[in-house]
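We treat protein structure as text, and this decision shapes the records that our systems exchange. Below, we set out a record of this kind in full and without editing:

***
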Amino acid sequence: MTRDFWGGEVLEELVSRTKHGDPYVRQIARALLGNVEKGSNGWVRRVMSLPEMNTYNSPFEKALVLEKIMLHYILYEFWESVIHLGKVQRGELAKVKSRINELDQPEWDKVAEQITDDIYLRVAGRPIQTHRLKRYESLIEKIVVPLLGKNGSEIVVADAGSSSGAGSQVARMQGLPLKKWVAVDMCDPKENLSWVLTCSIRLGEILDGRFRKIIKNMFNWPVEFQFVKGDIENLPRKLLTGFADVYLAVFSYYQLKNPKRAFGQALKVVKTGGIILLTDYFLPGKLTPESVITPGRGGLLTTGVWRSNGAGRAELITSYLWADTDLSKFI
């Protein structure tokens, strides 16, 4: 294996993903590594030379976008049909399920050979936008409701680094008295919805039908939901007014160049007594915005909870260690 591949860091991420718990992730990673071995004849090296790939701040993100390019090729037509019709057609679903079931390792290797320049140019540089309902369900049920949901007052939530309305619907289902859910991100999900679906939905969820819940959520945002286009390191002034009871950032800070600055912005978003929840991988023994690290680099998947004291200050009041990336249970 070539060790000088982007300093070896992206290569190491791909090798790490060959040991992933999801068999499809493992097979895609092996197919990508096989394409790397083709040298200049492989598309993986060509896409990595694009200036658009500098959008991603870490080797993990670059390895992940290579995987999503493969998935986008497989699923693009299916997602476009869902978006166009506003529903899932039984025949189209049967076809895509059949295709997924055919995808053993040799088939993934063939898929890698079929990726052309026009395919990866469609998505290179786009943020990896994931709308995982389970994460919101766990955060709201296990943390937000116990902290704020018992007093009967309606709550305003700021969701930083997400363009999804997923959390607002989950909040209602969990019984959170929600007044408004404001999602802030650089990308409007409606602009690139097929890409968002590719990033959000796993192949196994298409096969077992769980993807329908995500589709329903994304196509039917509640009236309490508001999307604001903005950079969470430099938020629009209208958000810096201490309007929110809760500030959430779920797998957002590891992508930032200046997480400390983003946290300073969060302090201006929440009201005095409001809480800030950061869910990300943190260096062991440290729980500050600056100690957030790239997933897979040895950190601990943690939700830190801070309470605003006003005047731009907050104190860490508790933290939670998670056993998996869907935040399904505590350690």
Notes: DSSP finds 13 helices and eight strands in the chain. The beta strands are 155-160, 178-185, 225-229, 244-250, 270-282, 292-293, 300-310, 313-321. Residues 133-321 form a domain with the Rossmann fold fold (CATH 3.40.50.150).
